[in-house]
Amino acid sequence: MAVPKHKASKARTRRRRVINSRLTLGTFRTCPNCGNTMVSHQVCPKCGFYRGKQILNPED
Ligand SMILES: [Zn+2]
User: Fold this and answer.
1) pLDDT digits (tens, 9 = 90+) for 39-50
2) Where do the domains of the chain lie?
3) 52 alpha carbon to ligand 1 midpoint, in Å?
4) CA of 53 to the centre of ligand 1 (A)
5) How far apart are CA 47 and CA 30, in angstroms?
6) Whole-model pTM?
7) How much distance in Å is there from the Cα of 47 to the middle of ligand 1?
């Protein structure tokens, strides 16, 4: 089994974690329907639109 040659510094570990957490969260963009900030490739939580279609009821 491979063993790490050097201990990873706190800065290095944190930097890696920040990048990975950003990747899993996805990028934020503004909704074309209501202008709300939302996660891309997901239904807008404010108006329920996705790719120009009403997916969810905004009152839910
Ligand atoms: Zn929206």
Assistant:
1) 888 888 888 888
2) 28-60
3) 10
4) 10
5) 12
6) 0.47
7) 4
